[in-house]
Write a structure and sequence with these properties.
- This protein is of the alpha+beta class.
- The protein has three domains: about 160 residues, PAS domain (Beta-Lactamase); about 110 residues, Beta-Lactamase; about 200 residues, Heat Shock Protein 90 (2-Layer Sandwich).
- The protein has 16 helices and 17 strands.
- The strands form four sheets. The chain has a five-stranded antiparallel beta sheet, sandwiched between helices. It has a five-stranded antiparallel beta sheet with strand order 7-6-10-9-8, sandwiched between helices. It has a five-stranded mixed beta sheet with strand order 12-14-15-17-16.
- The longest helix is centred in the middle third of the chain and has 38 residues.
- It catalyses: ATP + protein L-histidine = ADP + protein N-phospho-L-histidine.
- It comes from Paracoccus liaowanqingii.
- Keywords: ATP-binding, Kinase, Nucleotide-binding, Phosphoprotein, Plasmid, Transferase.
């Protein structure tokens, strides 16, 4: 009669009950084929520890013995993806070959009675057929037998991949925003709390305020010079009301250098309230542009328009006077027409010189060169020009240009420029102290003999009256036989003073 082995006592596997899917798998697994042997014969501390692992809601894995035989729970199975269920009862080195060295160290330390703890530990694992980085919080502790000897290692595994990636993504986004913040063409600042504490400023804001270190300080302390300029009152209203404020071309005084003067700047800006998660204002975002150059440019444009209007009226008056006098005293109409055209052309050339300098005046050398241009040659053999750089006001430049044109025209008709050998010297110098004067001389050489004219034509009157009346100059006309000479002496104050339109 064949003997029948009695069925195993179900109570000997009671530690596997309540262990979820893994408890059922462990009951069905042929443990006799593993290094642990039949589950019924396991030591008490192995059964107790396995029961704790199976019932834990947190991913846990038990590495038993020197080979690290794996017993784990449902939570660890979910983490292991396609590695489950094949690795149940497997040596840890075989189950996770890509991190064999890491687990070898875990077993070495744990079986020696030591503990290990890692936070956001990065490991490269093969899961679901793909290799990739995962981040884990890992805690390892030894499992002791009744004699206090370590016989296994218990691991608690918490995957933090999502959290780490979220933090890194947030950090990358923050860095990207900081780069945009730093590279923004306009100035920006973040102010926190009701005291408007600087939390962050970009380089453009630092440049605006003179590169002062203001982060961590309230606006009132960081920029004391603006306390009485109304800006803090505006910040207070924005913080209290939650309503943004926009300013256009607002003047602000900033002490941009230590112990330096308060500099006037102009800014376009927006104070935008920052609303926190509770719906309340937590700070203010400041954004704007330094528009000082634009404001000054617009002011200069208005000045130029006023100057243009003033100059246009003066020019028309000059043209009318030239036309009237020319037509009255130039004989036949054709002669008068040519004289009028030449004088208006001279006036136009003088206007061009001034326009090239934005009507800020011009250098006397440019005025002289423009006036004599129709009568000079490419080699500059007809004229000798000598003198220092002297800035003339627009009024002085126009008057001198017209006078020089008349001198050159007369020289071409009757004087040195009417012969091939004739030439003209134009010299000027500065003299006088404390009230400097400009002394200018026009001297002709190599022309026909000169005699004192019996009467003064319009050109001569234009020279004398234009220089004397417009420039408050002392003018003398000399007629030695060797060549005509004009001498002019005028105070620099009258030569450089601005017109009323320019000084507004």
């Amino acid at each position: 009669m064949t003997s029948i082995d009695p069925a195993p006592d179900a109570s000997s596997l009671a530690f596997l009950s309540g262990g979820g899917e893994l408890g059922a798998l462990m009951r069905d697994l042929d443990w006799a084929s593993t290094a642990l042997g039949p589950a019924e014969g396991w030591t008490a501390n192995l059964k107790i520890t396995a029961g704790i692992v199976l019932r834990s809601p947190v991913a846990m894995v038990l590495l038993w013995g020197e080979k690290g035989i794996m017993i784990y729970n449902d939570a660890f199975a979910a983490f292991s993806r396609d590695r489950h269920p094949m690795m149940l009862g497997m040596k840890v080195r075989q189950a996770w070959p890509e991190v064999a060295g890491f687990n070898d160290n875990v077993l070495k330390v744990g079986l020696a009675g030591g503990t290990l703890s890692y936070r956001d530990q990065e490991l490269t694992l093969n899961l679901d057929g793909a290799s990739g980085a995962v981040w884990l919080n890992l805690d390892y502790a030894p499992v002791l037998d009744e004699n206090g000897r370590s016989v296994g290692v218990l691991a608690v595994v918490v995957e933090t991949t999502g959290a780490v990636q979220a933090v890194r993504q947030g950090r990358a986004e923050t860095e990207r925003l900081q780069q945009l913040f730093a590279q923004a063409p306009g100035f920006m600042a973040m102010l926190g709390g009701p005291e408007h504490v600087f939390e962050l400023v970009n380089p453009a804001y630092e440049q605006l305020i003179g590169h002062r270190k203001v982060e961590g300080q309230p606006v009132r302390a960081a920029l004391p010079e603006i306390v009485n300029q109304g800006f803090i009152d505006i910040l207070d209203r924005v913080f209290e009301s939650g309503q943004a404020y926009t300013g256009k071309a607002i003047k602000i005084g900033l002490q941009r250098t230590v112990d330096g003067p308060v500099e006037e700047r102009f800014v376009d800006f927006v104070y935008q309230p920052i609303i926190g998660g509770d719906g309340k204002v937590s700070g203010i975002f400041v954004e704007g542009y330094d528009v000082t150059d634009r404001v000054h440019g617009e002011a200069h444009l208005r000045l130029l328009m006023n100057e243009l209007n003033h100059r246009l009226k003066n020019t028309l008056a000059t043209v009318r006077a030239i036309a009237r006098q020319t037509l009255q005293g130039s004989g036949p109409m054709e002669v008068a027409r040519e004289a009028l055209s030449a004088r208006i052309s001279a006036l136009s050339r003088a206007q061009n010189v001034l326009t090239s300098r934005n009507w800020q005046g011009s250098d006397i050398r440019d005025v002289v060169a423009s006036a004599i241009a129709p009568h000079s040659d490419s080699a500059d053999t007809r004229f000798s020009i000598t003198g220092p750089s002297v800035s003339l006001s627009p009024r002085a430049a126009l008057s001198l240009s017209l006078a020089l044109h008349e001198l050159a025209t007369n020289a071409a008709k009757y004087g040195a420029l009417s012969t091939n050998a004739g030439r003209v010297e134009i010299t000027w110098s500065l003299a006088g102290n404390p009230e400097p004067r400009l002394d200018l001389e026009w001297q002709e050489h190599g022309g026909p003999p000169v005699a004192l004219p019996s009467s003064k034509g319009f050109g001569t009157k234009l020279i004398e009256r234009g220089l004397a009346n417009e420039l408050d100059a002392v003018v003398s006309l000399e007629y030695p036989p060797a060549g005509f000479v004009l001498k002019m002496s005028a105070g620099m104050a009258s030569l450089q003073e601005r017109s009323e339109a320019s000084s507004e």
